[in-house]
Design brief:
The complex is a heterodimer.
Chain A lengths: L5 H24 L2 H26 L7 H29 L4 H28 L7 H21 L9 E2 L7 H19 L2 H11 L1 H6 L4 H27 L1 E2 L6 H14 L4 H17 L7 H15 L13 H4 L9
Antiparallel strand pairs in A: 1-2
Chain B lengths: L1 H31 L6 H19 L7 H27 L7 H23 L4 E2 L8 E5 L2 E4 H23 L1 H11 L1 H6 L4 H26 L2 E2 L5 H14 L4 H22 L4 H15 L14
Helix pairs in contact in B: 1-5, 1-8, 1-9, 1-10, 2-3, 2-4, 2-8, 2-9, 3-8, 5-6, 5-8, 6-8, 9-10, 9-11, 10-11
The chains are: A mainly alpha, B mainly alpha.
């Protein structure tokens, strides 16, 4: 009989316990403003890490990530408004505790949002069969804009008025869980055969193809996974803000996410996380400067790119070894 | 039928503005392989420079062609200087880094110009002074054209012919073409690549400034964020025609302008911003190098 591997299960239980504790503690310890910034940082991290799978790992330049986020946000919000809220009531009537009922329905909404976004990612990934480099970038940019214009014209989701009244079910627990999920997934992917194939495509597509890597299906796969998590992030955002507006998903939002990936260092997961936190905090920290805020933000972006064009971490990852050893040990020959 | 021709006239006018902006994108891309996201904001600055010069000259009191020409030239000179500064202090330091780093820098510059514009000019829209009073001329068959449209068309035409002359018949134009073909080889032939790149940026910015002033003539409302959408669409126009290709940018601009005006006229104004991108995706799927672009096989 095969033994059950308890390691991953124990880790999962530990993560859930820690997040559960944080979920209970953070709202008490932090004031609402700081808590909001923390939540937005979490959502940014999910977006940056998911885009890193497409841009950083596979080298496919996508500037339409806000479009996938919008798809996830709007589809999950529509689901919650049409069906989810009733399901929660039904579950509560059946005796389920409110938190669990909401969490279960939110989870369904997140998966739905992610799946719809992943389907869109598949459709956008298909042109990457034909297009390379900048042209692909432009198609993704166009896709993001088309999505936004379509949403602005669909009356059922509020069109240009925005979509109010989405149940605010997102809490520290769910954001934390997805952050951990996407990060762990990325690290495992990076060390797997599939991850190596993605890196090979990024480094030299022709050579990768010559070595027998099915480049097309891997590129599409990267798009599907990346857009799935972007959709989940969008769904979290929708259920956090309780209100959606097409203007939250402009070309500028995509650019912001790209800036996180590039600033962190292409392909570096911890870099993407660090940069996502920095770029989300920066406008908040700069609030003291009032009107100068966005000017300083853009100046800092330029200066950072000039001084560290390879990104904050380059292709490296933050690791505990940095702190335990003064000098990295040479590998034995 | 007359409505169709009327829309066509409006479309060509609007398209020639796109073409002027697209030229800057395509030249910079041709030489540096950089999508200069700040270009749309240079166009915005052009409109604002025109606005301030026109007010300083008192062109509102006595409108006329001479004053308008002065406003146009001043705005072009101002934006040329801005283009020079941007290239020198933001793009040059990252030229040797990865293209993505350069792209993010361009985005940073774009945000800087927009937010700097809000800070300096204020976020509220300004009204471009009427430096040339509007008059409608009949073209027969119920189709009219305003004198402003004539000015937009003729100024664009003059600038495009001028650009074509510079690129094809001057030494600096020859150097531009050489640099866009191959940086190293051009440098080995004694061409100062840095100077050519700077020149290209200044040239593109001058054209964008002209576009800004011309738009100010027709749609007088100007504000610091006005450059984002036209910039994006002009870029799409450049890709449509085949990026890096100068006649392609003009063709792409015209196709874009006409399509947009037709969609607004016959379908729905709310799809105006989407049609540009739908058009783009169709063209890229059918002809990935753009209408006039040559598809070059990747060298290994």
């Amino acid at each position: 009989m095969k033994r059950i591997a308890w390691g991953p299960v124990a880790k999962l239980v530990a993560v859930v316990a820690v997040l559960y504790a944080l979920n209970a503690l953070l709202p008490r310890l932090l004031n609402p403003y700081i808590l909001r910034v923390v939540m937005l940082c979490g959502i940014s991290v999910i977006l940056a890490v998911s885009l890193n799978l497409i841009n950083g790992f596979t080298g496919q330049f996508s500037i339409g990530h806000a479009g996938f986020m919008a798809i996830g946000a709007y589809s999950s919000a529509t689901f919650s408004l049409q069906a989810g809220a009733n399901w929660v009531r039904a579950l509560e009537a059946a005796g389920t505790p409110t938190g669990i009922a909401q969490g279960a329905v939110l989870l369904a909404g997140l998966l739905l949002g992610g799946t719809v976004a992943a389907i869109a990612g598949y459709l956008v990934g298909l042109p990457s069969l034909r297009l390379r480099g900048d042209y692909l970038a432009i198609v993704t940019l166009g896709f993001g804009e088309i999505i936004r214009v379509l949403i602005t014209n669909i009356d059922a989701v509020g069109a240009a008025r925005g979509l109010p009244g989405i149940p605010a079910w997102t809490n520290v627990f769910w954001v934390g869980l997805v952050v951990v999920g996407v990060t762990v997934f990325s690290f495992h992917l990076a060390r797997s055969t599939h991850g190596r194939a993605l890196f090979a495509i990024r480094d030299d597509e022709v050579a990768a193809e010559a070595l027998g890597v099915p480049t097309t299906s891997y590129k599409v796969l990267a798009f599907i996974i990346g857009s799935f998590f972007a959709g989940v992030a969008g769904a979290l955002f929708a259920h956090y803000n309780a209100y959606l507006h097409p203007n939250s998903f402009t070309f500028l939002k995509s650019i912001e996410i790209i800036a996180m990936v590039v600033l962190g260092g292409m392909g570096s997961i911890s870099g993407a996380i660090l940069a996502a936190v920095i770029l989300t905090l920066l406008p908040e920290v700069l609030r003291f400067a009032q009107e100068l805020r966005m000017v300083l933000y853009s100046l800092m972006l330029i200066v950072l790119m000039i001084t560290r064009p390879q990104g904050l971490l380059g292709a490296k990852e933050i690791s505990l070894r940095w702190f335990t050893r003064t000098r990295p040990a040479r590998a034995a020959r | 039928m007359s409505e169709f021709f009327q829309q066509l006239v409006n479309g060509i006018t609007w398209g020639s503005v796109y073409a002027l902006i697209a030229l800057g994108y395509t030249m910079v891309y041709g030489i540096l392989r950089l999508i200069n996201f700040a270009h749309g904001d240079v166009y915005m600055l052009g409109a604002f420079f025109g606005y301030f010069v026109a007010r300083a000259l008192g062109a509102t009191q006595e409108p006329g062609l001479l004053g308008a020409l002065l406003v146009l030239l001043a705005a072009m000179a101002g934006c040329g200087a801005v283009g020079f500064v941007i290239e020198r202090f933001a793009y040059k330091p990252v030229r040797r880094s990865s293209r993505l780093a350069a792209l993010i820098t361009a985005i940073g510059v774009s945000l800087l110009l927009e937010n700097g514009g809000i800070l300096v000019f204020g976020a509220d829209p300004k009204f471009f002074p009427q430096i040339i009073p509007s008059r409608n001329l009949s073209l027969g068959g119920g189709v009219t054209i305003s004198n402003q449209q004539i000015i937009i068309l003729s100024v664009s035409l003059v600038l495009m012919v001028g650009l074509r002359f510079i690129v094809l018949h001057t030494r600096v134009g020859k150097a531009m073409r050489a640099v866009s073909y191959n940086h190293t080889a051009a440098a080995l032939m004694g061409i100062s690549v840095d100077r050519i790149v700077t020149f290209t940026f200044v040239l593109g910015s001058v054209l964008a400034a002209a576009a800004g002033v011309l738009v100010g003539l027709q749609n007088p409302k100007i504000e610091p964020l006005m450059g984002i959408m036209p910039g994006l669409k002009a870029f799409v126009a450049a890709v449509l025609g085949g990026i890096g290709n100068i006649p392609g940018a003009v063709l792409g601009g015209l196709v874009m302008g006409i399509t947009e005006v037709m969609v607004v006229g016959y379908l729905s104004p709310s799809y105006r911003d989407a049609i540009a991108f739908v058009l783009l995706i169709i063209i890229l799927l059918v002809r990935p190098a753009g209408l006039l672009g040559k598809y070059s096989a990747e060298k290994v």
